[in-house]
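lol forgot to send this yesterday, sorry. struct tokens for the thing we talked abt
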């Protein structure tokens, strides 16, 4: 059996399955604490209380609140790059992006979304949290830009494809914020807006539409 923690003479070992269970337990408790008190106001001690664990028990798995955020991102936020890597043409990319957006609507949890918004807002105070979200966005940007470049061929430069990828991802994230701000969001309308955004960028890439500011 594989062991990932402990192992020194005289110290107990924790199996990888048990460690994964403990990590999930801590992450679930952290999200509950963040929803109850807000991310900024929640301390490691608050998470310990919610999880029913000692501080030492928490630190075996996560060395800080930022590390818990990293664990939550990996566990709860889908990797934006994954659906993009499976798309080889405009139709496939359209399907991947819109399907992903629709799935995010179906899995929507307003309380968790508010927590994520607060966590993202902490990026300017925490370089580690900023790096977590920056790396996630860079993976998605690289994947999307590669497909847009493939769709546009020689007509679309690599830098242009990357600019369009950034713009599209930012717009889709913006739709998520709109949903958060609306007490009774129009999900069908937001999904249609996502389709308009995706297809607009795809059409521009496929036709070689000039960049803004260019003739």
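and heres what i got for the seq, position by position
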């Amino acid at each position: 059996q594989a062991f990932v923690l402990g192992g020194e003479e005289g110290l107990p070992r924790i199996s990888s399955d048990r460690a994964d269970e403990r990590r999930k337990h801590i992450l679930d408790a952290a999200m509950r604490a963040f929803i109850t008190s807000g991310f900024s106001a929640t301390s490691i001690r608050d998470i310990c209380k919610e999880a029913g664990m000692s501080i030492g028990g928490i630190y075996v798995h996560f060395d800080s609140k930022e590390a818990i955020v990293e664990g939550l991102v990996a566990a709860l936020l889908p990797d934006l790059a994954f659906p993009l890597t499976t798309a080889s043409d405009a139709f496939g990319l359209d399907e991947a992006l819109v399907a992903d957006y629709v799935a995010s609507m179906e899995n929507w949890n307003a309380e968790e979304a508010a927590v994520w918004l607060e966590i993202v807002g902490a990026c300017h105070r925490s370089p580690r949290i900023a790096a977590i979200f920056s790396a996630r966005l860079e993976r998605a940007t690289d994947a999307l830009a590669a497909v847009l470049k493939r769709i546009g061929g020689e007509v679309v430069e690599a830098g242009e494809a990357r600019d369009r990828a950034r713009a599209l991802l930012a717009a889709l994230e913006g739709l998520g914020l709109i949903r958060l701000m609306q007490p009774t969001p129009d999900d069908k309308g937001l999904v249609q807006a996502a389709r308009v955004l995706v297809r607009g960028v795809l059409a521009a890439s496929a036709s070689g539409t000039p960049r803004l500011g260019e003739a």
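The radius of gyration is 21 Å. anyway ping me if u want another try
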